[in-house]
């Protein structure tokens, strides 16, 4: 019964935890500029994340090691220093964007500049991390995030043509601005398959002491939760396509993105959009901050756990505190959160091969996964992802310059 409850909670909270600045910005821009055409990119990105999430959970269950710890042990610190530094830089940028996104949500409600809200929001995030166990961060914030289903409700209320939506899951060439189209397609992948999500998930698997008998829960949560959660991103894209594309507006700010709710919710539009944005961004900020504490502790052998008193994990606590302060300091300088987000997701694609290649080794090493090594099909898919990741890494920066 407890396994079934964990499964239901995992799937349900994936809906609320899927939406944050990356998915909102990329999906809103894709819908506003290309209609339904990039729904296929959202589906592929969600499938990629589901596959990698399942593997990260299986690795944690069988080896009792997180991804960071397993890579450090298997390849050594000299190899791991490059992906470690890359992930830390990405996490700081993403954390800054998440704090900025939550601050803009408050600005939408108050009219006061978002820079004034960055520090108070960072303090709230830190206080939640200081007093909360892992389950509060994973399930509590995730359940609050169910408000983001309003994007799906908005799309349903607008009544898109089912045939047009279905055809958009088959990749097609755009009628205009192919460079921008390619950039947004790759950015959707970068916004979805973030490195912090995988190590956070594997750390959570160990925090909750998932056993080998519960591997089915891991698989169902990874695939069901991520694919179900991707419906929210699709809802954003469809709603943006139906409302903003006819206005011929490029979404350059979250204030413009909020327009998508007006036809569906009327006077409630701005408040509901702001609430969805704030909860999604705060949830992601909690996960990113906690993950940085996890990664540094696991690589350098420090004590770590969100379920232990913070005084017993001083270096773990200092790690997420320092990075949260750093991100807040960058945020108050006034960098545009949406532009920072688009840069972050592009850089995520650049480091994607460093994420995928170690999986090919670890998921076939019996020392780590014992009798749960990858199947031939699993390895083939992972190899395809590695090649695709390398190709996207080569082209994303030029696309960012010419079409970003």
- So, CATH architecture? Orthogonal Bundle
Shape: globular
CATH C-level class is Mainly Alpha
The major β-sheet equals: none
Global Rg: 20 Å
Structural class: mainly alpha
Give the number of helices.
20
Round the mean pLDDT to the nearest integer and report it. 86
In terms of DSSP E residues, the strand content is under 5%
Oligomerization category of the chains in this entry: single chain
Total strand segments: 0
Task: List the keywords.
mainly alpha, 404 residues, Hydantoin permease, globular, 0% strand
Any overview of this molecule?
By secondary structure, the protein is an all-alpha fold. The protein has one domain: Hydantoin permease (Orthogonal Bundle). Helices cover 77% and strands 0% of the residues. The chain has helices at 2-17, 21-34, 39-63, 67-75, 77-110, 115-131, 134-144, 150-158, 162-167, 178-192, 195-207, 215-243, 254-257, 262-265, 269-300, 314-331, 337-350, 352-362, 366-369, 376-403. The radius of gyration is 20 Å and the shape is globular.
């Amino acid at each position: 019964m407890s396994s079934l409850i964990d499964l239901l909670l995992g799937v349900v909270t994936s809906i609320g935890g899927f939406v944050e600045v990356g998915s909102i910005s990329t999906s809103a821009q894709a819908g506003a500029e290309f209609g339904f055409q990039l729904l296929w990119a959202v589906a592929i990105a969600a499938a990629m994340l589901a596959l990698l999430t399942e593997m990260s959970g299986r690795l944690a269950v069988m080896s009792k090691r997180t991804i960071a710890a397993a890579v450090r042990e298997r390849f050594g610190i000299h190899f791991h220093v490059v992906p470690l530094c890359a992930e830390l830089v990405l996490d700081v940028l993403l954390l800054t964007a998440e704090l900025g996104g939550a601050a803009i949500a408050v600005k939408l409600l108050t009219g006061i500049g978002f820079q004034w809200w960055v520090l108070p929001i960072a303090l709230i995030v830190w206080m939640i991390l200081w007093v909360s166990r892992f389950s509060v961060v994973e399930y509590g914030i995730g359940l609050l995030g169910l408000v983001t289903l309003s994007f799906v409700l908005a799309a349903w209320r607008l009544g898109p043509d089912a045939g047009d939506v279905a055809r958009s899951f088959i990749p097609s060439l755009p009628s205009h601005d192919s460079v921008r189209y390619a950039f947004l397609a790759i950015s959707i992948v970068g916004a979805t398959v973030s490195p912090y999500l995988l190590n956070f998930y594997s750390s959570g698997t160990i925090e909750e002491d998932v056993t080998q008998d519960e591997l089915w829960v891991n698989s169902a949560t990874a695939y069901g939760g991520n694919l179900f959660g991707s419906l929210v991103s699709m809802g954003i894209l469809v709603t943006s396509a139906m409302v903003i594309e006819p206005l011929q507006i490029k979404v350059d700010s979250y204030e413009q993105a909020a327009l998508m709710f007006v036809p569906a919710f009327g006077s409630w539009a701005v408040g509901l959009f702001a609430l969805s944005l704030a909860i999604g961004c705060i949830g992601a900020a909690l996960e990113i901050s906690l993950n940085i504490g996890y990664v540094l502790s696991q690589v350098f052998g420090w004590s770590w756990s969100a379920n232990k008193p913070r005084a017993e994990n001083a270096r773990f606590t200092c790690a997420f505190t320092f990075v949260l302060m750093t991100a807040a300091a960058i945020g108050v300088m006034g960098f545009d959160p949406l532009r920072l987000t688009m840069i972050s997701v592009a850089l995520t694609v650049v480091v994607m091969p460093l994420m995928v290649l170690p999986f090919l080794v670890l998921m076939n090493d019996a020392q780590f996964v014992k009798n749960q090594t990858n199947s031939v099909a699993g390895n083939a898919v992972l190899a395809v992802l590695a090649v695709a990741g390398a190709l996207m890494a080569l082209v994303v920066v030029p696309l960012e310059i010419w079409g970003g």
